[in-house]
Design goal:
The protein is of the alpha/beta class. It has helices at 2-8, 24-28, 44-57, 66-78, 120-125, 145-149, 193-211; strands at 33-35, 61-64, 86-87, 97-101, 109-115, 129-134, 138-140, 154-159, 164-168, 175-178. It has a seven-stranded mixed beta sheet with strand order 1-2-10-9-8-5-6, sandwiched between helices. A three-stranded mixed beta sheet has the order 3-4-7, with helices on one face. The longest helix is centred in the C-terminal third of the chain and has 19 residues, at 193-211.
């Protein structure tokens, strides 16, 4: 965020809030929300509530690694109507797993990604390919991939084997989830394009709120 702020000549003061203490007001009053890696979260339901509010209220949101996984859960529960959608990290024996343990860990791996032409994410990258770093053991359950692909939340990035790695919500100011961790590839003077895009959207959101 500092890298992006320096390039845009703005001072960014991020506030970290544990899901154990997160309130609706925290989300409503924020110009942008990042659901960061580090799951399992202290309060999964609060993380999902934050994602739902950002989605419904048009608040820019970026979810990476565990954040991506919880974007999928929120979407499954509140849009697809799968109220019992679960994450294997919390309950590996749940009957309705949308996030399951990967057959091959991605911790410490770099992978090439392909983006959908015309997507917001491809626009931020300025191209249809990138190499990113992964640090995760969980991803979209293979048997639920078709349900995710068929809905309004669009799959806009996949690895070379076609597995879901990036999602976005068309029509939203910025609602992006990545299974990889773009933060790790940001440098002073060269902010990651998704972080830069998120900050742009958050600044625009703040200006709109001030004007109203």
């Amino acid at each position: 965020l500092t890298h992006a702020g320096d390039v845009l000549s703005v001072v960014i003061s991020p506030q970290w809030i544990s899901t154990a203490k997160l309130t609706n007001a925290d989300i409503e009053n924020s110009p942008g929300v990042i659901i960061a890696p580090g799951s399992p979260y202290a309060n999964m339901d609060r993380a999902i509530d934050a994602i739902r509010m950002a989605r419904e209220l048009g608040i820019p949101l970026l979810g990476t690694c565990g954040g991506f996984q919880h974007i999928i859960l929120e979407y499954a529960r509140n849009v697809l109507g799968c109220e019992d959608a679960q994450h294997a990290e919390y309950d590996p024996y749940a009957s309705d797993l949308f996030i399951s343990k990967l057959s091959c860990s991605l911790v410490g791996r770099e992978m090439e990604l392909n983006f959908v032409e015309g997507s917001q994410v491809a626009g931020y990258y300025g191209g249809l390919k990138a190499v990113e770093s992964f640090y995760c053991n969980f991803g979209v359950a293979p048997e639920r991939a078709d349900e995710i692909r068929a809905g309004a939340l669009k799959v806009v990035g996949s690895d070379t084997e076609g597995e879901i790695r990036v999602v976005e919500l068309p029509g939203h100011p910025f609602f992006v989830g990545t299974l990889y961790v773009p933060q790790t590839r940001s440098l002073p003077g060269q902010p990651h394009p998704l972080i830069l895009g998120f900050v742009h959207a958050a600044l625009s959101s703040q200006k709109v709120a001030s004007a109203s």
